[in-house]
Specification:
heterodimer, A: 296 residues, alpha+beta, Alpha-Beta Plaits, 2 domains, four-stranded mixed β-sheet, 9 helices, B: 227 residues, mainly alpha, Fumarate Reductase Cytochrome B subunit, two-stranded antiparallel ribbon
Chain lengths: 296, 227
């Protein structure tokens, strides 16, 4: 109620100020992941499981601190570890919190055939509605970040919700709440972008990371999860973050030109066949001439 | 499958035109309708996944998740059914030199001027093209379909296969729909006597003489008239 009253911008027959006058509210939310201050503690992984009601999965050991090779249908938040040797021979342990990027132009949503299985909210959150999901897996083909994961038991696809259930009631996502170093931030897109740029500038001028920068890929219209990277020129180093992600060309072709071509061809075919029947009519058998052939 | 002309009934047959010739065996017919049923299901569910405007088709066959579950299985049924067809008809479907002359006269076929066409065997060139079109469609749809069936099992490094599968499956399905539209139109609507032959297995001698003259002479043992 109180929030609704602050959004009133005009009041009839009212002398005096209007509470929502000059309201300029930004709806777009954003999660900022500063990889340069992440210590890889995985508190965010645990908080994600706890809030979303999943139990801890079996870990895979492959000579790294990483819990498992990639996110899973019931493990939406994964710190990716990479031991990176720099040109001067020194080592860097790169850690990146991997999760759904909540693209402004989501490939999963573009590829999905099921009405209402994937929605994008005005605040930028891209959310799967499992009740409407048919489990076809097209979203897994549409996503350039390898995020949607299929559950063989539920026969549906799951991924990070950006804690839509928390954000919608004014709470920050569970991972943000759990982060002990403050490398995770949550706010409006413009605030987070500004904070990220400030941090990147600091890394460039003070910390000696000349290539430090912000990852907010324009190929997918920008994302609602952005990163600060020490080396923004090589995002692949951070557990395979794509340099220039796009919705795959084949998905674009399939949902664009092929759809129109196919629909035209099918309708055109039906019209053509109907025309043929009206123009030429049925094919009928003809009588065999009496003198045709003879019994052997 | 070679029976000579048989009378339609015990009554004395005076008209040779009405003598029946067996065209399809019971196994061929049963298999054809199994394939047709599977294809119909694949078409309904496939179109539901194809366009949001046709998504309601999924509701007709039990809803989206059900359609997604059964579509690949029915694809396997269709593939097996067509594999058997291929085995049975491979010899009759070979494209030979006589098809070249027929293909040149295809305009006459389209205009229903069948008398102007060179005589054809059990299947004409158009039917052979349809057969081979479906043959290669099945191979491509099966391969791309398996990739789509188990997308989650294709490793991320091989995601190019996901991208290829999605395009191939849709494109080839469209081509097969075109072929099937023509097939259903020609056999069930255009050419009188064709649909019945796939139901009870017989055609009249006149039908065979008109549309598959070489085959007519083969199965009846009648010889061609001297020119």
């Amino acid at each position: 109620m109180s929030q609704a009253s602050t959004e009133i911008i005009r009041i009839s027959g009212h002398a005096g100020t209007v509470p929502g006058e000059g309201l300029n509210r930004e709806f777009q939310v954003c999660k900022l992941v500063d990889t340069t201050t992440c210590i890889g503690c995985k508190a965010c992984e645990v908080a994600c499981l706890e809030w979303n009601g999943y139990t801890f999965s079996e870990t895979t050991f492959d000579n790294s601190y990483q819990t498992m090779p990639e996110t899973a249908w019931n493990y939406w938040n994964l710190i990716k570890f990479n031991e990176h040797e720099r040109e001067d021979g020194s080592m860097m342990l790169l850690m990146r919190k991997d999760q759904c990027m909540h693209c402004a132009d989501p490939g999963c949503l573009a590829a999905c055939p099921a009405d209402g299985a994937i929605v994008q909210y005005a605040n930028g959150i891209v959310d799967f509605q499992e009740a409407n999901c048919i489990g076809c897996g097209y979203c897994m083909t549409g996503c350039p970040f390898n995020i949607p994961k299929f559950s063989p038991t539920a026969r549906k696809v799951f991924k990070c919700t950006l804690c839509n259930d928390r954000v919608s009631v004014g709470l920050e996502p569970a991972c943000i709440k759990a982060c002990p170093t403050g490398c995770l931030h949550f706010g409006t897109k413009s605030e987070m972008k500004e904070l990220a740029e400030t941090r990147a500038e600091q890394l460039r001028t003070v910390s000696g990371f000349a290539d430090a920068g912000v990852y907010d890929p324009p190929g997918v219209g920008g994302t609602h999860v952005i990163y600060v990277l020490h080396d923004a020129k090589n995002p692949e180093l951070y557990g395979g973050l794509p340099k220039d992600p796009h919705i795959p060309m084949s998905v674009r072709l399939w949902k664009g030109p092929l759809k129109w071509l196919g629909n035209l061809a099918m309708v055109g075919g039906l019209v053509g066949l109907a025309w043929h029947y009206m123009r030429y009519g049925p094919k009928k058998e003809e009588p065999i001439p009496p003198d045709d052939g003879r019994h052997v | 499958m070679s029976t000579g002309a048989v009378p339609r009934s015990n009554a004395a047959v005076t008209d040779r035109n009405e003598e029946l010739i067996r065209r399809y065996s019971l196994a061929e017919r049963a298999n054809h309708w199994l394939g047709a049923l599977a294809y119909t299901y694949l078409l309904i569910t496939g179109l539901a996944f194809w366009s949001p405007y046709l998504y309601w088709l999924a509701a007709v066959v039990g809803g989206g998740p059900t359609a997604r579950f059964w579509h690949p299985w029915l694809g396997l049924v269709f593939s097996v059914s067509f594999l058997w067809t291929s085995k049975e008809w491979l010899r009759d479907m070979q494209i030979d030199s006589s098809d070249r002359a027929w293909s040149k006269a295809i305009g006459n076929y389209i205009r229903n001027e069948d008398a102007k066409l060179p005589p054809v065997g059990r299947f004409n060139y158009g039917q052979k093209l349809f057969f081979w079109g479906i043959f290669y469609s099945v191979i491509l749809l099966l391969l791309s379909g398996i990739a789509l069936w188990y997308t989650e099992s294709l490793p991320w490094n091989l995601r190019i296969l996901r991208y290829a599968a999605i395009l191939i499956h849709a494109s080839v399905a469209l081509i097969s729909i075109g072929l099937v539209l023509i097939h259903v139109y020609m056999s069930a609507i255009l050419e009188k006597g064709s649909l019945g032959s796939m139901i009870h297995g017989y055609v009249t001698s006149a039908w065979a003489w008109t549309f598959h003259r070489t085959w007519y002479y083969e199965v009846t043992g009648r010889s061609r008239p001297k020119q």
